[in-house]
TrEMBL record, chain A:
Listed GO MF terms: RNA binding
Gene Ontology cellular component terms for the protein in this record: CURI complex; small-subunit processome; UTP-C complex
Localization terms from the record: Nucleus, Nucleolus
PANTHER family assigned: NUCLEOLAR PROTEIN 6, NUCLEOLAR RNA-ASSOCIATED PROTEIN
Stored Pfam families: Nrap (PF03813), Nrap_D2 (PF17403), Nrap_D3 (PF17404), Nrap_D4 (PF17405), Nrap_D5 (PF17406), Nrap_D6 (PF17407)
Entry keyword annotation includes Nucleus: yes
Full protein name: Uncharacterized protein
Signal sequence, start to end: none
Similarity section: Belongs to the NRAP family.
Gene3D superfamilies per UniProt: 1.10.1410.10
UniProt entry keywords in alphabetical sequence: Nucleus, RNA-binding
Organism: Theobroma cacao (Cacao)
From TrEMBL, chain B:
Domain Ribosomal RNA-processing protein 7 C-terminal stretches: 116-238
Organism: Theobroma cacao (Cacao)
Protein name: Uncharacterized protein isoform 1
Pfam families the record matches: RRP7
Family as reported in the entry's similarity comment: Belongs to the RRP7 family.
Biased composition (Basic residues): 23-33, 59-71
Composition-biased stretches (Basic and acidic residues): 83-93
Gene3D superfamilies hit by this protein: 6.10.250.1770
PANTHER family per record: RIBOSOMAL RNA PROCESSING PROTEIN 7-RELATED, RIBOSOMAL RNA-PROCESSING PROTEIN 7 HOMOLOG A-RELATED
InterPro entries registered for this protein in UniProt: RRP7, RRP7_C
Residue segments, region Disordered: 1-102
GO biological processes: ribosomal small subunit assembly; rRNA processing
GO cellular component: CURI complex; UTP-C complex
């Protein structure tokens, strides 16, 4: 039976992954590599013996590292051997390279060449000679410089063979010199000083980094052999190494020069073998987990990772080995004490994925890219190109100037941000493609320095006052003053304490900028950087949710106050038959997730001072839905129609009562009742529980039929509103992320595809199931992850379960799974069945009936995913790469109109909320089909002429929720829904995209006979929007399926 | 204003001419041109996807009709059509009037409809009262007709009258709302769940088989899933 062949799905996926990334050693490949290596060897053989080498071969390099006495006579290398991952069969695609270890001949070095960078200089000059002769070889295309683990004083050669192999494009060979037994090991003890220039007041300082750098080369071959021995004939171990490399490469915060690299990982795995922590029965995934556990528990940086001679204990457990007299090399010497906690955190997250996810977390561990843009909450780029400060003390002393600068920036930010930040990561990559050692090291600062900050908690990051030391502690206070400069002030606090402090005064809605201000201050004050060289990714997207230069969320406090008052008044109404028992807010403005929560309207008040009305008083006022429940009664009618009418009667009575008792203005249609209060318009709705049970009964009779009465919808919206409201209090950044997400969707004309509530659930998922990340703590990071979720979630095969209060039991989850399977089955049987392409399940809606039942359909979802993917890529690029203009950021919200079949542009000045329009759309392609003039029947603002007349008249002119776009879309859909599909922006865009629906052949035929299709059709559409439509363009005529 | 109009007209003319030329050149070229025209690069990818989509549709069609030829002819027709319509109105861009004098369509209509829908609380109240009276009368009428229909056939309808509907509890005098129904349903549901399902051996067997089938189908799903993942190159973490 088939079930027998069934393997664990994690195991299966891992095998697939290995197949994909492992380099197969086919005979053409091995021949290719061997040929190239022998070509290199023969090129080296051509170098004349005893060639005199002087500093002139690379004057810049020798000058910059400050070496003297570098002349030597060239001798051939003692050996040239393949090492590295190729030799153990663990090359991971796509970067295929072969390491060639080249042993430097002892004759070229003096005994004391470990001093003052002489070794480094000679090593480099030696490579210069080889490079020159390689270049003349015909089987070599080009030779470039690179560095060993980003250490500029240790360059390596990268050789690209002239021949190419189709299966491994871009294969190159790295030539890495090794210095086996060149120097006396005891001279390179970590406590010794080997750079004479480094001393404080005549006392030489130890140079551990420098010594390690030489020791590393001396042990290179030995270590390589040891790794080879550990891996030989052990397939699973090799697979585990490949998995670890894939895992690490996906995490750019730890796969970098001061943390992990491929070689170090193979050393760690070999250590595992030496320690007997793994055995031959273990599968690759088991070894993978064991390695992670080792990293998580072993405090590497305290002892150092030493390579054992076989049989010896690798980790000497006697503390601070770094400064111990040891002749071995700490292979983890590049891991800084800043990088290690980050590594541990990343490992912990991965292990949590293994535990938490049913399928072992394959997606999260091996298929999700955890780049710095998505990982860190705040990303900063410092442009330090040509900044002399960096190498004022010289390029290389014990450590290199770039590493020292990294540390300086880290210390500074660490001290300045204190507990606001959980992790601060400073990374400055030096290598770039045009690196040329002959010219020296000054060109290595061209890439910007990256700072990533993980915030500890939003509350701490948004803190306005930092309290420093007490004024009585003079020394500390002085230090504090020195650090903070003019920002520090002496303050008296409520508890009577007088202390130094820093205050970052700012309004509630700009609190996310506090961190930015602090960082900018610190960098300018201490490192005297210019403002233009500090690029902080914080507020670049804020423009999309501002309204007239201000975030409308700032009015939310007032809105909530007004709502409280309203609900008090409603509950105290006595002149209606049934009392109001509860009042609940429904609109997203009440839970801080509305892109544009309404600003109080001057006319929606009890008292209005007409004379003081401003010029730009909007004509429309946005209404906010509020749900009311009445006390129970048995006198309600039984049929749907009568229930709805009775509700309206109640609402009218309530409105009348409010009008009489409080003087509130009310207006009503046959569906809605709106009341004005304190500048807001509230739309009242009644939830009647009987309606719910009516629905349940209907469902009971016929499972497939979904009857959604108004009551059911109201009930679900109520549930959703209260859940999201609760969530929003736990995660203060949730609201801003939702607002950006909604704005993005709307500006790409997806308003009709994805319900507002569905967006909230998608974003909620990011906060509830953040793995393999931590919970996002900034709006841009959250937004990026939202885009990636949309783009990368496997919508066709897995439901998205949003468990807000953690109240889904195992049974519930099974039920959801079953519901999902049912839909999948229905879809497979009939691909025309297009419902629920996006399956969103929650505690209140286990079958995804509420928000994504009809839309997006599979085609819409496909478009949505494609847009999300390209926007995510663009955003990542904007965050990580050196781009400072705002244009790129605007592109995220500017939709390309050429991707529709036809486009309708609207009169921007006839939209109800002018300020919400981000860009005026223009089109310079397609066929201009029609042009329309603007109507005078509607203006977004009250005109002076309207101001005349009594207050009552003025109030009646005010339009509640009047939206010409919605009217237009409604009219078009009524008329042409079988031929056209509309894509629009309900938040206030001025463009509507049209795509042709696939209509039946016969219908189309008839239309053809009528002639002039599609132009006439578009004109008719334009006619429906008289006075509102500006231009109609035809871009692509419909394709005929006949 | 007028000047601008005319300039646009000219531009349009040029454009249509150009388009005509383009139409003659191969279809593929057109496609690529459209793609290049994408206002910004970010959604280039989408262009591809969209094309994919269309190609798929074409592919389907090809399967149905077997031959590519027809597609050519159809696109030819299509172009012809576009050209025809263009030829007809090449002269100018159609002008939509602002519609301020005409209330049947567009902005004016919406504004009027908006105001008409709000006649005031009193009027609405009255309308609803009328509606409810009419509605109740209608229901009554329907009931009577039904009865009449039945009696005509020589049958008398005997209906169970519940008597006074209890809205207050006898002892406490508290109002009882519409809960009862839900409560009854809840009870019913509970009762049902008490039924024993695996009383007979064959039931047990069936249940087991069902479970196995379920597992099997899930496995099938998994396999398909993985195939799809492979197709989507999900296993390539780069």
């Amino acid at each position: 039976m088939e079930t027998e062949t069934y393997v664990d799905s994690m195991e299966f996926k891992v095998q697939e992954l290995l197949k994909e990334v492992r380099l197969e050693y086919s005979s053409p490949l091995t021949k290719f590599v061997d040929d190239t290596v022998s070509a290199i060897k023969s090129a080296i053989d051509k170098i004349p013996e005893d060639l005199q080498v002087t500093a002139d071969w690379a004057p810049g390099f020798v000058r910059d590292i400050g070496a003297d006495k570098v002349e030597f006579k060239f001798k051939k290398p003692k050996s040239v051997e393949i090492g590295g991952s190729y030799s153990i069969g663990c090359v991971v695609k796509p970067d295929v390279n072969v390491d060639l270890l080249l042993r430097l001949p002892k004759e070229c070095f003096h005994e004391k060449d470990y001093l003052n960078h002489r070794y480094h200089a000679k090593r480099c000059l030696y490579l210069c000679v080889i490079k020159k002769y390689l270049k003349s070889s015909s089987s070599i295309q080009k030779v470039e410089w690179s560095t060993l683990q980003n250490e500029a004083r240790k360059p390596v050669l990268v050789v690209y063979p002239a021949a190419k192999l189709a299966e491994v494009p871009g294969l190159f060979i790295r030539i890495i010199p090794s210095a086996t037994s060149l120097f006396n090991l005891s001279k390179l003890n970590l406590k010794r000083n080997n750079i004479r220039a480094l001393n404080t007041g005549g006392v030489p300082q130890p140079t551990p980094k420098y010594n390690c750098s030489i020791l590393e080369d001396m042990f290179l071959e030995e270590n390589s052999k040891f790794v080879k021995k550990s891996f030989s004939g052990w397939k699973e171990l090799g697979e585990a190494l490949i998995l670890l490399k894939v895992w690490a490469r996906l995490r750019s915060s730890i796969y970098v020069h001061d943390c992990l690299n491929g070689f170090l990982i193979s050393i760690i795995v070999s250590y595992l073998v030496a320690e007997d922590k793994v055995n031959h029965d273990m599968k690759a995934t088991g070894i993978f987990r064991a390695t992670l556990k080792l990293i998580a528990t072993h405090p590497l940086w305290k002892h150092g990772l030493y390579f054992p001679l076989a049989g010896q204990n690798a980790f000497t457990e006697e503390g601070n080995e770094r400064h111990n007299s040891s002749t071995r090399v700490n292979l983890a010497f590049r891991i800084t004490c800043v990088a290690y906690p980050q590594l541990q955190d990343e490992v912990a997250l991965t292990l949590r994925c293994v535990e938490k996810f049913r399928d072992g977390g394959f997606e999260e561990i091996f298929a999700t890219k955890i780049d710095n843009a998505a990982k860190y909450d705040y990303c900063i780029r410092l442009n330090l190109k040509g900044n002399n400060e960096v190498y004022a003390l010289g390029f290389c002393l014990d450590d290199e100037c770039w590493r020292v600068y990294e540390q300086d920036v880290h210390c500074l930010l660490n001290q300045g941000l204190s507990d606001r930040a959980k992790f601060i990561r400073v990374i400055w990559r030096n290598t770039h493609s045009e690196f040329n050692v002959e010219n020296g090291l000054s060109g290595l600062d061209s890439e910007p320095l990256f700072v990533g900050i993980s915030v500890s908690s939003v509350e701490k990051a948004f803190r306005v006052v930092d309290i420093g030391p007490n004024a009585e502690k003079k020394d500390e206070a002085l230090l504090f003053r020195k650090f903070w400069g003019e920002k520090s002030e002496l303050r008296r606090f409520q508890d009577g304490k007088i202390a130094e402090s820093t205050v970052w005064e700012s309004e509630q809605w700009t609190r996310h900028l506090i961190l930015k201000r602090i960082i900018e201050f610190l960098l300018r004050h201490h490192l005297s950087l210019l403002k233009k060289d500090i690029v902080q990714i914080v507020d670049q997207l804020d423009f999309s949710v501002l309204h007239g230069g201000k975030d409308p969320v700032s009015y939310s406090g007032r809105l909530l106050g007004t709502f409280e008052e309203l609900s008090k008044r409603l509950r105290s109404i006595e002149d209606i038959p049934l009392r109001v028992s509860s009042v609940q807010p429904l609109d997203s403005a009440f839970r801080f997730t509305s892109v544009f929560p309404p600003e109080p309207h001057p006319l929606a008040n009890k008292k209005v001072d007409v004379a003081r009305l401003q010029n730009f008083t909007p004509f429309s006022v946005q209404s906010l839905e509020v749900m009311i429940q009445l006390e129970g009664s048995g006198n309600w009618p039984m049929d749907d129609v009568s229930i709805e009418k009775t509700k309206l009667v109640f609402l009218l009575k309530i409105a009348e009562s409010l009008q009489n008792n409080w003087g509130m203005t009310c207006t009503a249609t046959e569906e809605d009742v709106d009341v004005f209060m304190d500048g807001y318009a509230f739309r009242l709705r009644i939830l009647h529980e009987r309606g719910l049970s009516l629905v349940n009964r209907e469902i009971g009779r016929d499972q497939t039929k979904w009857v959604s009465s108004d009551d059911k919808k109201l009930f679900i919206r109520g549930q959703h509103a209260s859940m999201i409201n609760g969530l929003q209090f736990c995660y203060p950044i949730f609201g801003p992320v939702v607002r950006l997400a909604k704005r993005w969707l709307a500006s790409h004309l997806f308003s009709a595809c994805l319900a507002e509530e569905a967006v909230e659930l998608l974003v909620a998922y990011l906060f509830l199931k953040p793995l393999p990340f931590n919970v996002p703590c900034s709006r841009i990071t959250g937004f990026l992850r939202f885009l990636r979720l949309l783009a990368e979630h496997d919508w066709a095969f897995s439901p998205l379960v949003v468990d807000i209060n953690g109240d889904l039991s195992q049974n519930d989850e099974k039920e959801i799974e079953d519901n999902f399977m049912q839909i999948r089955k229905a879809y497979e049987e009939n691909t025309q069945n297009r419902s629920k392409a996006m399956f969103l399940a929650t505690a209140y809606d286990k079958a995804s009936e509420a928000w994504t039942r009809c839309s997006p359909n599979p085609l819409e979802l496909k478009r949505l995913v494609a847009y999300a993917r390209s926007s995510a890529n663009l955003l990542t690029k904007l965050i990580l790469q050196n781009q400072t203009d705002s244009l790129g950021w605007e592109c995220l919200f500017r939709t390309p109109l050429s991707l529709y079949d036809a486009v309708i542009l609207l009169h921007g000045d006839r939209l109800p909320y002018l300020k919400r329009l981000l860009f005026t759309s223009e089109l310079d392609q397609g066929k201009h089909v029609a042009h329309g003039n603007a109507s005078n029947a509607f203006h977004p603002f009250l005109l002076p002429a309207d101001m005349k007349g009594s207050l009552e008249q003025l109030k009646t002119k005010l339009m509640v929720n009047f939206d010409p776009l919605r009217c237009f879309v409604g009219d078009v859909e009524k008329e042409f829904s079988n031929r056209l599909k509309l894509w629009y922006d309900s938040l206030g865009g001025d463009a509507i995209g049209l795509t042709w629906e696939q209509s039946k052949k016969r219908e189309r035929k008839e239309e053809e006979l009528g002639g002039k299709y599609p132009v006439d059709l578009l004109r008719n559409v334009g006619e429906l929007g008289k006075g509102f439509v500006r231009d109609v363009y035809l871009i692509k005529a419909p394709k005929l399926t006949n | 204003m007028k000047k601008k109009r005319s300039r646009e007209k000219v531009a349009n003319l040029v454009e249509t001419k150009e388009e005509k030329k383009r139409d003659k050149s191969s279809k593929k070229k057109r496609k690529s041109k459209e793609k290049n025209n994408a206002i910004i690069g970010i959604v280039d990818q989408l262009g591809d996807e969209e094309e994919d989509h269309f190609q798929k549709q074409n592919g389907k069609f090809k399967k149905d009709r077997k031959k590519k030829k027809k597609e050519h002819s159809s696109s030819g027709e299509n172009q012809l059509l576009v050209e025809k319509s263009k030829a007809a109105d090449k002269d100018e861009v159609y002008e939509i009037p602002s519609g301020d004098e005409d209330c049947s369509q567009g902005m004016k209509k919406w504004v009027i409809e908006y105001h008409q829908s709000r006649p005031g609380l009193k009027v609405l109240q009255q309308r609803i009262d009328e509606f409810i009276i009419a509605h109740e009368a209608k229901l009554e009428q329907e009931r009577k007709e039904r009865e009449a229909c039945l009696t005509e056939g020589g049958w008398t309808l005997v209906e169970h009258h519940k008597g006074r509907k209890k809205t207050t509890e006898f002892e406490s005098g508290t109002t009882v709302g519409s809960v009862s129904q839900a409560a009854v349903e809840g009870k019913l549901a509970k009762k049902k769940s008490k039924e024993v399902f695996d009383f007979y051996r064959f039931q047990k067997r069936e249940a087991k088989r069902n479970e196995l089938m379920m597992l099997q189908s899930r496995f099938e799903q998994d396999k398909k899933h993985i195939q799809q993942l492979r197709a989507a190159r999900k296993f390539r973490p780069y």
